[in-house]
Amino acid sequence: MSPRRFEHILRVSGTAQEIAKNLGCSLEKVRLAALGHDLARQWDGSKYIQYLEARGFSIRYEFRERPILLHGPVAAQILKEEYRIHDEDILEAVQHHTLGKPGMGLVGRILYVADYVEPGRKYIDQGFYQQILAESSIHGMVLGVIEHARSRGKTVSGQALDMEQEARNAYTDSTKTQVSYETQAI
Ligand SMILES: [Fe+2]
Ligand SMILES: [Fe+2]
Question: For labeling, which of 56, 68, 85, 180 is most exposed (least CB within 10 Å)?
């Protein structure tokens, strides 16, 4: 693994733990997910397909076209087979860290956000980093990240669009809950 990638992984781990601390999520789980998420990132594209097919997975067309998108699923499999990690929150987070996934747990959402905003990313400035970390809910963070990616002209995956919708609904609900609570308090 290149020093550059290793440093990225450490920054993702630091950022993810910072977020986990604020949101009351397990630091150990986000740390393990972050440390494992890009462990197969440097493989050759054809090797991902070979690796997964050898284990009986069928590969969808869009992944055959862009096999690099398989580095998450492959890393999750390696964590399971070689590192004996069976925690579903960690495996899910690693598997879906690139495209996101609606219904994903908190560890997965934190990794998704941290991978995007870690301060070594050229497109991230200090202001945006602080803004995301200051969000009090993971849904606000997810919305901020996807909106930022869109504003950079990045194609947002179908899974991320679904996750965005889900975050928007949850975010609106939590605002409503807050409003009604305040009304009751009066
Ligand atoms: Fe990755
Ligand atoms: Fe990454």
Answer: 56
